[in-house]
């Protein structure tokens, strides 16, 4: 049973690494971040476009360009699926659950947390390998930074990007 779950999780990661959701630059955008994993050289430039909603800003689109291992690329693809259309607060909560997964050393999350992560739960096994945790977190760090830039940018800067 555990082997079949590990194979399923591995297949999910490989599928996302091959068919990268959100790959490519987006215009306009409200926040951008460039992150590099100095350990392995993986890198990503991630952009977010925000839209206003009655509940506050939400993520209208995520676009990214990056290179690196299948784990970093798959993590970015999963991230795109999980946060596109979500309000910023929800996206930050999803990111926090993913960070908990990565710092859990391979321990599975509670079922409700796994539901929040969707395909992101496939990274449970990745958390057993310290060298790969930074690869999986690279995109999430970029998202957090891009959102911070988007939410604190001067209005004139945001208008230039739209």
UniProtKB/TrEMBL annotation:
Residue intervals of the NIF system FeS cluster assembly NifU N-terminal domain: 9-135
Its recorded name reads Fe-S cluster assembly sulfur transfer protein SufU
Which species does the entry assign this protein to? Georgenia faecalis
Q: Which SUPFAM superfamilies match?
A: SufE/NifU
Q: Which domain of life is it from?
A: Bacteria
Pfam families given for it?
Answer: NifU_N
